[in-house]
Amino acid sequence: MELVLTLLLCSLEFFITVSSNDNPKVCPLPEVSSNVEIGSLRRTFSPGEELFLSCMDGYTPVSGLPKIVCGSSGEWTKSTLTCMRRRCPQPRLSNGNFHSRDYLYQSTINYTCDEGYKMTGSSTAVCQADGTWSSPTPICTIVTCGLAPIPLFAMVTYNKRFRGNTTNFGDTATYKCLPPYALIGYPTAECTVNGSWTQTPKCQVVTCPPPENIENGIMYPIEKRNFGYMETVKFSCMGNYVLEGNVNIFCQKDGNWSIKPTCMAPCTVDIQRGRISFQGEKIWIEHFKPNLVYHKGQILLYCKNKERNCGYTVPAQCFNGSLSFPECFKGKAH
Predict the structure, then answer these.
(1) Which CATH number fits domain 207-264: 3.40.50.10540, 2.10.70.10, 1.10.150.130, 2.40.160.20?
(2) Which of helix, strand or coil describes residue 2?
(3) Which of 217, 226, 245, 295 has the most CB atoms at less than 10 Å from its CB?
(4) What is the topology classification, in CATH, of domain 96-142?
(5) Mean pLDDT, residues 77-98
(6) Which helix (H) or strand (E) holds 157?
(7) Where does the Sushi domain lie (predicted)?
């Protein structure tokens, strides 16, 4: 009886051992990198079965095989598939700039337009799984203004030619008023980033009171009336006086006259004896007739070099009735 029981237990153990060796191990669902997808919903796989892998949305394969094989040991062959984030194309934007950390899947790009340009479209976009941006590249178009406003009695000229009634950011217009109107304000306006012109000047009537004559001068016309903007008056000098300054003065836009000229007096050569040189000619002072040098006119006086016992000339110039003599000259009248 004991022998029969022992033989029965040995047979059962052999059956169990043989049965275990006849059932090979299965492969569980494999673990893959975060950007790789498994193309099956099954939980277990038999040895020899292949499992195909693919890149997740937004990723693209760069190297390796897209499959693994279940081995008899219950382990998968090593996965060599490598995926990287899909890349969106670099945008092209005229008259603007864009900024992004990179151009890969899920990255955001920001657009800006240059000063004086306005944006049409979205200022941001996201790189999508299919390698395209979530919105088209915007367009930066220049800011426009209408024609510059023209005040009454004024004319305007632009810095460049244009067609139609549209001007662009940065264009300028220069104003002039028709006399006797004067321009009040800045003479140049500009098309701004807001699509409007800077402040327009005004034209208004400006008059100046009748001017006073200058000393030793002659004024023309001699009219005791108010003069309009940019009207002129002419001056000259009497006798041997010389006019210094502008011959004409004009009525300015602030209601005042421009700077008047001055009549500068001539000089006499106040010496007792000796010779002078005037206009290239040597003349004894008693023969210098008339004894007169105009304002800013010049004569040459003779000084003596005691060491060399010779004479030399020194210039003397007339300034508004005063003739300055050099220190070396000894012939000045007292």
Answers:
(1) 2.10.70.10
(2) helix
(3) 295
(4) Complement Module; domain 1 (2.10.70)
(5) 94
(6) strand 154-158
(7) 25-85, 86-142, 143-205, 206-265
Residue 49 tokens, joined: 């079965």
Contact 38, 13 (CB under 8 A): no
- Give the C-alpha distances (Å, rounded to integers) separating 191 from 96, 172, 327: 20, 6, 66
124 vs 25, residue with greater confidence: 124
Q: Alpha-carbon distance 328 to 46, whole Å? A: 129
Fold of 147-198: Complement Module; domain 1 (2.10.70)
Spacing of C-alpha 310 from chain mean position: 68
pLDDT tens-digit map of 282-320 = 999 888 999 999 999 999 998 887 777 777 889 999 999
Amino acid at 259: I
Return the HEC string of 201-256.
CEEEECEECCCCCCCCEEEECCCCCCEECCCEEEEEECCCCEEECCCEEEECCCCC
Count of Cβ atoms closer than 10 Å to residue 248 Cβ: 11
d(CA 271, CA 331) in angstroms, rounded, equals 6
Q: Which pLDDT band holds residue 22 (cuts at 50, 70, 90)?
A: low
- Is the backbone of residue 121 left (phi > 0), alpha (psi -120 to 50) or beta? left
Exposed / middle / buried, residue 140 (Cβ in 10 Å: 0-12, 13-18, 19+): buried
Buried b (16+ CB within 10 A) or exposed e, 284-321: ebeebeeeebebebebbbbbeeeeeeeeeeeebebeee
Percentages of the chain per state (helix, strand, coil), in multiples of 5: 5, 40, 50
Q: Where are the alpha helices (DSSP H) in the chain?
A: 2-22
**CATH node for 275-323:** 2.10.70.10
How many Å apart are CA 170 and CA 191, to the nearest integer? 5
